[in-house]
Amino acid sequence: MRSLTKMDHVLLGVDKALRAMVPHSNPSTRPLPVSNDTIPKLNITEARHVAGLMRINHTGEVCAQGLYHGQAFSAKDNDVKQAMQQSAQEEVDHLVWCETRLSELGSHPSIFTPLWYGMSFGLGAIAGAISNEFSLGFVAETEAQVSEHLQDHIGLLPAQDIRSKEILAQMDIEELHHRELALENGGIALSAPVRHTMRWMANCMKATAYHL
Questions:
Q1: 175 is in an annotated binding site
Q2: Which end of the chain is more exposed for a tag (fewer CB within 10 A), N or C?
């Protein structure tokens, strides 16, 4: 078996980016984490609200793909690079679950998906270039903030939409696991200005993705 060339790696990176940005281009390795296949009945207002929340979560998963791909691109340590690639692969299921629920609601992902992916890739590449510890700390903080908004969204969903609640609950469990792995592998606590900037950017994304 021949070794991959630099061009091979570039093409693989482009393929991963396109799969993150183009809806329904990723196969899921796991089924939806739901207790049954019943689609909850929602009125028009509820369905629109749930779609907005799921669009935010889908965009968050696109951002996670960009972040991990960017970090893997610039990471200095091969072990860290492989860890980033593995985490990105695990997040693919979350992406597919959100896409599936959006389709069930008759809705669609954010029209700004390419923008959010590109920004996240850039941030991930910068974090990976600074140091392994900072890069892993960035992952840990990102996952902590993602967990916060997942838990918020579970509380904001209509009571009868058990399907969406179960999807987000499973995602939350796995995001926290990724956070713990990043810390165990040497991730450092980020400074307050960095954390606040990350939160501000996340709030901008959420405000936009809910509607568009």
A1: yes
A2: N
C-alpha gyration radius of the chain: 17
Query: Residue 171 has which token pair?
Result: 């995602």
Going from N- to C-terminal start, the domains of the chain cover 40-209
Q: How confident is the model at residue 184 (pLDDT cuts 50, 70, 90)?
A: confident
Superfamily for the 40-209 domain: Ferritin, core subunit, four-helix bundle (1.20.1260.10)
Q: Residue 91 annotated as binding?
A: yes
Distance CA 112, CA 116 (A): 6
Query: Which residue, 26, 29, 8, is CA-closest to 17?
Result: 26
pLDDT tens-digit readout, 47-66: 999 999 999 999 988 888 88
